[in-house]
Amino acid sequence: MDRLTSMEVFVKAAEAGSFAAAAPALGISSPMIGKHVRFLEERLGARLLNRTTRRQSLTELGRVFYERCKLVLAEAEAAEALAHDLRAAPRGRLRINAPVTFGSYSLVPALSEYMRRHPEVTVDLTLCDRVVDLVDEGYEAVIRMSPLTDSSLVARVLKPYVLIACASPAYLDRRGIPTTPADLERHECLGFAYWARPPAGEWEFTRGDDVQKVRTPARFQTNSGQALRIAALEGMGVILQPEDLLRDDVAAGRLVRVLADYETPALPTHIVFSQDRRPTPKLRSFIDFVVERFG
Protein backbone atom coordinates (compact mmCIF):
# COMPACT_ATOMS: atom_id res chain seq x y z
CA MET A 1 0.00 0.00 0.00
CA ASP A 2 1.01 3.61 -0.55
CA ARG A 3 2.04 5.09 2.79
CA LEU A 4 0.88 8.64 1.96
CA THR A 5 -2.56 7.35 0.90
CA SER A 6 -2.82 5.31 4.10
CA MET A 7 -1.96 8.42 6.14
CA GLU A 8 -4.73 10.35 4.40
CA VAL A 9 -7.21 7.54 5.10
CA PHE A 10 -6.13 7.38 8.75
CA VAL A 11 -6.57 11.14 9.20
CA LYS A 12 -10.06 11.08 7.66
CA ALA A 13 -11.07 8.09 9.80
CA ALA A 14 -9.82 9.78 12.96
CA GLU A 15 -11.69 13.00 12.15
CA ALA A 16 -14.91 11.26 11.12
CA GLY A 17 -15.06 9.15 14.29
CA SER A 18 -15.61 5.82 12.54
CA PHE A 19 -14.67 3.90 9.43
CA ALA A 20 -18.30 3.94 8.25
CA ALA A 21 -18.52 7.73 8.56
CA ALA A 22 -15.24 8.24 6.68
CA ALA A 23 -16.06 5.84 3.84
CA PRO A 24 -18.34 8.17 1.76
CA ALA A 25 -15.81 11.06 1.92
CA LEU A 26 -12.95 8.78 0.85
CA GLY A 27 -14.94 6.85 -1.74
CA ILE A 28 -13.80 3.47 -0.40
CA SER A 29 -15.37 0.80 1.80
CA SER A 30 -15.03 0.49 5.58
CA PRO A 31 -13.05 -2.76 5.27
CA MET A 32 -10.59 -1.01 2.94
CA ILE A 33 -10.17 1.81 5.47
CA GLY A 34 -9.40 -0.86 8.05
CA LYS A 35 -6.71 -2.32 5.78
CA HIS A 36 -5.01 1.08 5.43
CA VAL A 37 -5.02 1.64 9.20
CA ARG A 38 -3.67 -1.88 9.87
CA PHE A 39 -0.94 -1.27 7.28
CA LEU A 40 0.23 1.78 9.26
CA GLU A 41 -0.04 -0.02 12.59
CA GLU A 42 2.07 -2.89 11.29
CA ARG A 43 4.74 -0.45 10.05
CA LEU A 44 4.77 1.31 13.42
CA GLY A 45 4.44 -1.84 15.53
CA ALA A 46 1.73 -0.25 17.67
CA ARG A 47 -1.99 0.47 17.65
CA LEU A 48 -3.25 3.84 16.42
CA LEU A 49 -6.94 3.35 17.18
CA ASN A 50 -8.85 1.65 19.94
CA ARG A 51 -11.89 0.16 18.20
CA THR A 52 -15.04 -1.41 19.59
CA THR A 53 -18.36 -2.23 17.91
CA ARG A 54 -19.78 1.11 19.10
CA ARG A 55 -16.92 3.61 19.03
CA GLN A 56 -13.29 4.28 18.23
CA SER A 57 -10.69 6.51 19.85
CA LEU A 58 -7.08 7.44 19.20
CA THR A 59 -4.37 5.87 21.30
CA GLU A 60 -1.69 8.12 22.77
CA LEU A 61 0.57 7.25 19.83
CA GLY A 62 -2.39 7.68 17.49
CA ARG A 63 -2.93 11.29 18.64
CA VAL A 64 0.73 12.20 18.03
CA PHE A 65 0.80 10.35 14.71
CA TYR A 66 -2.46 12.03 13.62
CA GLU A 67 -0.97 15.52 14.12
CA ARG A 68 2.21 14.63 12.26
CA CYS A 69 0.26 13.05 9.42
CA LYS A 70 -1.70 16.28 8.95
CA LEU A 71 1.57 18.22 8.60
CA VAL A 72 2.99 15.69 6.13
CA LEU A 73 -0.17 15.77 4.01
CA ALA A 74 -0.23 19.57 4.01
CA GLU A 75 3.40 19.68 2.87
CA ALA A 76 2.69 17.14 0.15
CA GLU A 77 -0.26 19.21 -1.07
CA ALA A 78 1.88 22.36 -1.08
CA ALA A 79 4.60 20.57 -3.05
CA GLU A 80 2.08 19.39 -5.65
CA ALA A 81 0.63 22.90 -5.92
CA LEU A 82 4.12 24.36 -6.39
CA ALA A 83 4.91 21.81 -9.08
CA HIS A 84 1.66 22.73 -10.82
CA ASP A 85 2.54 26.42 -10.64
CA LEU A 86 5.97 25.78 -12.09
CA ARG A 87 4.42 24.02 -15.07
CA ALA A 88 1.73 26.67 -15.53
CA ALA A 89 2.25 29.51 -17.99
CA PRO A 90 2.47 33.00 -16.42
CA ARG A 91 -0.81 34.80 -16.94
CA GLY A 92 -3.01 37.48 -15.43
CA ARG A 93 -2.59 41.06 -14.18
CA LEU A 94 0.69 41.90 -12.45
CA ARG A 95 0.74 45.02 -10.23
CA ILE A 96 4.22 46.42 -9.66
CA ASN A 97 5.72 49.67 -8.38
CA ALA A 98 9.07 51.35 -9.03
CA PRO A 99 10.80 54.73 -8.56
CA VAL A 100 10.00 57.19 -11.34
CA THR A 101 13.41 57.50 -12.99
CA PHE A 102 14.35 53.83 -12.75
CA GLY A 103 10.91 52.83 -13.95
CA SER A 104 10.90 55.22 -16.92
CA TYR A 105 14.48 54.83 -18.14
CA SER A 106 15.44 51.28 -17.10
CA LEU A 107 12.42 49.12 -16.26
CA VAL A 108 9.99 50.11 -19.03
CA PRO A 109 12.47 49.40 -21.87
CA ALA A 110 13.12 45.98 -20.29
CA LEU A 111 9.41 45.27 -19.83
CA SER A 112 8.91 45.14 -23.57
CA GLU A 113 11.06 42.00 -23.62
CA TYR A 114 9.33 40.51 -20.57
CA MET A 115 5.90 40.99 -22.14
CA ARG A 116 7.07 39.41 -25.39
CA ARG A 117 8.22 36.37 -23.43
CA HIS A 118 4.93 36.15 -21.52
CA PRO A 119 2.10 37.30 -23.79
CA GLU A 120 -0.63 36.30 -21.30
CA VAL A 121 0.62 38.67 -18.58
CA THR A 122 -0.85 42.18 -18.25
CA VAL A 123 1.44 44.65 -16.46
CA ASP A 124 0.08 47.46 -14.27
CA LEU A 125 3.11 49.62 -13.39
CA THR A 126 2.88 52.53 -10.95
CA LEU A 127 5.80 54.96 -10.71
CA CYS A 128 6.44 57.08 -7.62
CA ASP A 129 9.41 57.95 -5.43
CA ARG A 130 7.75 57.52 -2.04
CA VAL A 131 8.08 54.20 -0.18
CA VAL A 132 4.79 52.41 -0.85
CA ASP A 133 3.19 49.82 1.44
CA LEU A 134 3.39 46.71 -0.72
CA VAL A 135 0.65 44.76 1.09
CA ASP A 136 -1.82 47.53 1.94
CA GLU A 137 -1.61 49.07 -1.54
CA GLY A 138 -1.97 45.74 -3.32
CA TYR A 139 1.36 45.48 -5.16
CA GLU A 140 2.81 42.07 -5.94
CA ALA A 141 6.38 43.33 -6.33
CA VAL A 142 8.15 46.63 -5.72
CA ILE A 143 11.56 47.98 -6.76
CA ARG A 144 13.14 49.81 -3.82
CA MET A 145 16.18 52.08 -3.82
CA SER A 146 16.88 52.55 -0.15
CA PRO A 147 18.13 50.46 2.79
CA LEU A 148 15.55 47.79 3.65
CA THR A 149 13.95 48.03 7.08
CA ASP A 150 10.85 45.81 6.74
CA SER A 151 11.75 42.25 7.77
CA SER A 152 8.33 40.96 6.69
CA LEU A 153 9.34 41.29 3.02
CA VAL A 154 11.45 39.00 0.86
CA ALA A 155 14.16 40.85 -1.08
CA ARG A 156 16.33 39.94 -4.06
CA VAL A 157 19.41 42.10 -4.47
CA LEU A 158 19.88 44.06 -7.70
CA LYS A 159 22.95 45.98 -8.76
CA PRO A 160 23.28 49.40 -7.06
CA TYR A 161 21.83 52.38 -8.91
CA VAL A 162 24.78 54.62 -9.82
CA LEU A 163 24.50 58.41 -9.64
CA ILE A 164 26.71 60.90 -11.48
CA ALA A 165 27.24 64.66 -11.15
CA CYS A 166 26.68 66.77 -14.27
CA ALA A 167 26.15 70.32 -15.45
CA SER A 168 25.64 72.04 -18.80
CA PRO A 169 28.60 73.47 -20.75
CA ALA A 170 27.06 76.95 -20.48
CA TYR A 171 26.85 76.74 -16.67
CA LEU A 172 30.45 75.47 -16.38
CA ASP A 173 31.69 78.24 -18.67
CA ARG A 174 29.98 80.76 -16.43
CA ARG A 175 30.83 79.32 -12.98
CA GLY A 176 33.93 77.20 -13.59
CA ILE A 177 34.51 73.46 -13.38
CA PRO A 178 34.68 71.97 -9.85
CA THR A 179 37.86 69.94 -9.36
CA THR A 180 37.19 68.72 -5.80
CA PRO A 181 33.92 67.93 -4.01
CA ALA A 182 34.51 70.92 -1.70
CA ASP A 183 34.27 73.22 -4.76
CA LEU A 184 30.54 72.33 -5.00
CA GLU A 185 29.86 74.47 -1.93
CA ARG A 186 30.45 77.50 -4.18
CA HIS A 187 28.18 76.21 -6.95
CA GLU A 188 24.44 76.05 -7.56
CA CYS A 189 23.52 72.45 -6.73
CA LEU A 190 20.06 71.25 -7.70
CA GLY A 191 18.43 69.00 -5.13
CA PHE A 192 16.28 65.88 -5.29
CA ALA A 193 13.67 65.83 -2.56
CA TYR A 194 13.03 62.16 -1.74
CA TRP A 195 16.32 60.29 -1.41
CA ALA A 196 17.13 58.74 1.93
CA ARG A 197 20.75 58.22 0.84
CA PRO A 198 22.46 60.52 0.19
CA PRO A 199 20.37 62.69 2.49
CA ALA A 200 18.88 65.89 1.16
CA GLY A 201 21.47 68.67 1.11
CA GLU A 202 24.48 66.33 1.33
CA TRP A 203 26.38 64.69 -1.51
CA GLU A 204 29.04 62.02 -0.99
CA PHE A 205 32.13 61.39 -3.12
CA THR A 206 34.78 58.70 -2.68
CA ARG A 207 38.31 58.28 -4.04
CA GLY A 208 40.22 55.35 -2.59
CA ASP A 209 39.87 55.56 1.18
CA ASP A 210 38.96 59.24 1.06
CA VAL A 211 35.22 59.84 1.59
CA GLN A 212 34.05 63.44 1.28
CA LYS A 213 30.56 64.57 2.25
CA VAL A 214 29.66 67.98 0.90
CA ARG A 215 26.84 70.21 2.09
CA THR A 216 24.89 71.30 -0.99
CA PRO A 217 22.00 73.57 0.06
CA ALA A 218 19.80 73.90 -3.00
CA ARG A 219 18.00 77.03 -4.16
CA PHE A 220 15.98 74.72 -6.41
CA GLN A 221 14.85 71.21 -5.56
CA THR A 222 12.11 68.94 -6.85
CA ASN A 223 10.83 65.39 -6.55
CA SER A 224 11.35 64.73 -10.27
CA GLY A 225 14.62 63.55 -11.78
CA GLN A 226 13.39 64.55 -15.22
CA ALA A 227 12.69 68.08 -13.97
CA LEU A 228 16.22 68.28 -12.55
CA ARG A 229 17.60 67.11 -15.89
CA ILE A 230 15.75 69.92 -17.69
CA ALA A 231 16.97 72.43 -15.09
CA ALA A 232 20.56 71.31 -15.65
CA LEU A 233 20.16 71.53 -19.43
CA GLU A 234 18.92 75.11 -18.92
CA GLY A 235 22.14 75.96 -17.06
CA MET A 236 20.61 76.25 -13.60
CA GLY A 237 23.33 74.26 -11.83
CA VAL A 238 24.95 70.92 -11.00
CA ILE A 239 22.80 67.81 -10.53
CA LEU A 240 23.47 64.41 -8.99
CA GLN A 241 21.17 61.98 -10.77
CA PRO A 242 21.11 58.39 -12.07
CA GLU A 243 23.49 57.61 -14.90
CA ASP A 244 20.63 55.99 -16.84
CA LEU A 245 18.77 59.31 -16.92
CA LEU A 246 21.76 61.37 -18.06
CA ARG A 247 23.65 58.97 -20.32
CA ASP A 248 22.30 60.30 -23.65
CA ASP A 249 22.83 63.94 -22.68
CA VAL A 250 26.43 63.26 -21.64
CA ALA A 251 27.09 61.32 -24.86
CA ALA A 252 25.67 64.21 -26.94
CA GLY A 253 27.62 66.86 -25.01
CA ARG A 254 24.48 68.57 -23.69
CA LEU A 255 25.69 67.81 -20.17
CA VAL A 256 29.24 67.37 -18.89
CA ARG A 257 30.15 65.00 -16.11
CA VAL A 258 32.09 66.67 -13.29
CA LEU A 259 34.32 65.10 -10.63
CA ALA A 260 34.52 61.98 -12.79
CA ASP A 261 37.66 60.79 -10.94
CA TYR A 262 35.55 60.36 -7.79
CA GLU A 263 33.09 57.56 -7.16
CA THR A 264 29.60 58.91 -6.61
CA PRO A 265 26.86 57.37 -4.45
CA ALA A 266 25.19 54.16 -5.52
CA LEU A 267 21.71 53.53 -4.17
CA PRO A 268 21.07 50.00 -2.76
CA THR A 269 18.46 48.42 -5.01
CA HIS A 270 16.17 45.42 -4.42
CA ILE A 271 13.04 43.82 -5.76
CA VAL A 272 10.80 42.96 -2.81
CA PHE A 273 7.62 40.96 -2.35
CA SER A 274 5.58 39.67 0.58
CA GLN A 275 6.75 36.48 2.28
CA ASP A 276 3.08 35.64 2.89
CA ARG A 277 2.48 35.45 -0.85
CA ARG A 278 3.33 32.15 -2.55
CA PRO A 279 4.79 33.37 -5.83
CA THR A 280 2.42 32.79 -8.73
CA PRO A 281 3.89 31.89 -12.12
CA LYS A 282 3.52 35.52 -13.26
CA LEU A 283 5.22 36.90 -10.13
CA ARG A 284 7.99 34.31 -10.18
CA SER A 285 8.65 34.95 -13.87
CA PHE A 286 8.84 38.71 -13.26
CA ILE A 287 11.20 38.39 -10.29
CA ASP A 288 13.47 36.06 -12.25
CA PHE A 289 13.42 38.44 -15.22
CA VAL A 290 14.30 41.51 -13.13
CA VAL A 291 17.16 39.67 -11.39
CA GLU A 292 18.40 38.44 -14.77
CA ARG A 293 18.30 41.95 -16.25
CA PHE A 294 19.32 44.11 -13.27
CA GLY A 295 20.91 41.67 -10.82
Shape: elongated
Q: How many H/I helical runs? A: 9
Q: How much of the sequence is in beta strands? A: 15-25%
CATH topology of the largest domain: D-Maltodextrin-Binding Protein, domain 2
- Output the helix-strand order: HHHEEHEHEEEHEEEEHEHEEH
Beta-strand segment tally: 13
Largest sheet geometry: 9 strands, mixed
CATH class of the largest domain: Alpha Beta
- The structure class reads alpha/beta
Which ranges are low-confidence, i.e. pLDDT below 50, for 5 or more consecutive residues? none
Cα Rg: 31 Å
Mean of pLDDT = 87
What distance separates the N and C termini? 48 Å
Number of domains: 3
Second CATH tier, the architecture of the largest domain: 3-Layer(aba) Sandwich
Helix content: 40-55%
Describe this protein's structure.
It is a single chain. With 295 residues, this protein is of the alpha/beta class. The chain has three domains: 3-80, Arc Repressor Mutant, subunit A (Orthogonal Bundle), CATH 1.10.10; 92-160 and 269-294, D-Maltodextrin-Binding Protein, domain 2; 162-267, D-Maltodextrin-Binding Protein, domain 2 (3-Layer(aba) Sandwich). Helices cover 42% and strands 25% of the residues. Strands 3, 4, 5, 6, 7, 10, 11, 12 and 13 form a nine-stranded mixed beta sheet that branches. Strands 1-2 form a two-stranded antiparallel ribbon. Strands 8-9 form a two-stranded antiparallel sheet. Helix 1 crosses helix 3, helix 1 packs across helix 4 and helix 2 (19-26) packs across helix 3. The longest helix is centred in the first third of the chain and has 28 residues, at 60-87. The chain is elongated and about 100 Å long. The two termini are 48 Å apart. The mean pLDDT is 87.
